[in-house]
Write a structure and sequence with these properties.
- By secondary structure, the protein is α/β, with parallel strands linked by helices.
- The chain has two domains: about 160 residues; about 200 residues, Rossmann fold (3-Layer(aba) Sandwich).
- About 50% of the residues lie in helices and about 10% in strands.
- It contains 13 helices and ten strands.
- The protein starts with about 20 loop residues before the first helix and ends with a helix.
- The structure holds flavin mononucleotide.
- The site of flavin mononucleotide has 21 residues, from α9, α10 and β9.
Length: about 375
């Protein structure tokens, strides 16, 4: 996005520099603006996100067409690689190109409006990582344009590094943060939960799940809930993990139990719940829950949200309150960016005697469209 002047022959740039071509400048500024806007999809919503995504890729193709001569020169080995800055800049450009192409495919994979039939690279996690990488590489790519032209190399290096790290942080931490706090999605319950059945090999399993919503002291007026991404399934407030448990119940012949607190409820404010959970985890608390009898089951599918990188304390209460000798616990976690983190270790420590198997960790955004993944897993085991 940065080559505004014809310097493909590596000529020293002096006072004779040409001014940036207005069309290239407009296309590039638009691309940077769209990349940033795309990060705010929590606020813009899916449809605007997908349409602006298309505009971005049109700009990308325009950019490639405008830079066709440079690309040809690169392919023919005619770009001067005398300076380290030039080599670095070219590597960044190539990486950015590869990243944007993969991002384009993953955008189609996660698309619900324009490419719902495209089933490759459909992970929101991957999409977010690619978008973060594209933003950071674009910052580097643009930064290199100024770097090779400035006398103040040290200052430019610090500035470009900071901007690049900032872009990475926006994608990797900023977006999940606002997603967890501000997103509201409405889904069609039947669409998400109902569908093809599969046979569970072995005796009937028990699905045990924990969700914040089932254990939260919500006001009568749910709109008063401050913060936190909320999901409405057919206008009914639903937790991510509850939805997954419902999907499993629809796919296989199983029993299902919720881990329900008996003494306390978490506050309706998301931030207050975060700090309450932090206090509980530090104190190694084991809040009281309604008893769940696991004695008649060989397989337990445990569905839980990650809390501070581990299982919520109520899940530990459940795991420590029964004997799991000879049983298998299949783990399905939901999270806002952290995979399984240390939750598997925590389950192994609490559920003495159990064989613990990680099945999948699902990014919170992907929960409503995870039925197929669960179905595939049941079929393949
Ligand atoms: C108290 C609390 C702590 C959390 N900690 C993490 C975390 O460490 N890592 C992460 O990726 N997501 C974290 N999250 C996000 C949840 O794991 C995620 O939103 C989950 O899908 C919520 O599921 P639920 O709707 O069934 O409660 C946390 C959420 C809460 C409420």
């Amino acid at each position: 996005m940065s080559e505004y002047i014809d310097d493909t022959k590596g000529k020293k740039l002096g006072k004779k520099r040409r001014r940036p071509n207005l069309i290239i400048l407009t296309v590039d500024v638009l691309m940077y603006a769209i990349l940033l806007l795309q990060m705010l999809y929590v606020f813009t919503g899916n449809n605007i996100h997908e349409i602006t995504g298309i505009i971005f890729f049109v700009c990308f193709i325009l950019h490639l067409l405008i830079k066709l001569d440079w690309i040809k020169s690169l392919l023919k080995g005619k770009i001067s690689m005398k300076s380290k800055a030039r080599v670095f800049s070219t590597v960044v450009t190539c990486l950015l190109f590869a990243c944007i192409i993969t991002l384009m495919l993953s955008s189609m994979g996660v698309s619900r409006l324009i490419f719902p039939w495209f089933k490759v690279l459909g992970s929101s996690d991957l999409h977010r990582y690619l978008a973060s990488a594209a933003l950071a590489l674009a910052a580097l790519h643009g930064g290199m344009y100024f770097y090779v032209r400035t006398e103040k190399k040290k200052k430019a290096t610090v500035f470009i590094s900071l901007i690049t790290v900032l872009c990475l942080c926006i994608g990797l931490f900023g977006v999940p943060y606002i997603n967890r706090h501000f997103r509201t999605v409405s889904i069609d319950y039947s669409d998400a939960v109902k569908g093809e059945k599969a046979e569970w090999k072995g005796s009937k399993p028990l699905v045990v799940y924990f969700t914040r919503l089932g254990n939260t002291d919500f006001d009568d007026d749910v709109d008063a809930v401050s913060g936190a991404s909320l999901m409405y399934a057919d206008d009914k407030l639903t937790g991510n993990d509850q939805l997954l448990a419902d999907m499993l119940e629809d796919i296989i012949d199983c029993d299902k139990k919720a881990i329900t607190l008996t003494q306390k409820k978490y506050p309706s404010s998301y931030n207050a719940t975060i700090s309450e959970a932090s206090k509980e985890l530090k104190a190694n608390a084991r809040p009281d829950i309604e008893p769940i009898d696991v004695s008649g089951y060989d397989s337990i599918i445990l569905v839980y949200p990650l809390w501070w990188g581990t299982v919520p304390p109520a899940v530990s209460t459940f795991l420590e309150s029964s004997s799991f000798d000879g049983k298998t616990i299949y783990l399905i976690a939901t999270q806002g960016s952290s995979g399984f983190s240390s939750s598997t270790k925590a389950v192994k420590e609490s559920a003495k005697g159990a064989e613990v198997i990680e099945v999948m960790s699902i990014y919170c955004d992907d929960v409503p469209k995870s039925r197929d993944k669960l179905l595939d897993w049941v079929k393949s085991r």
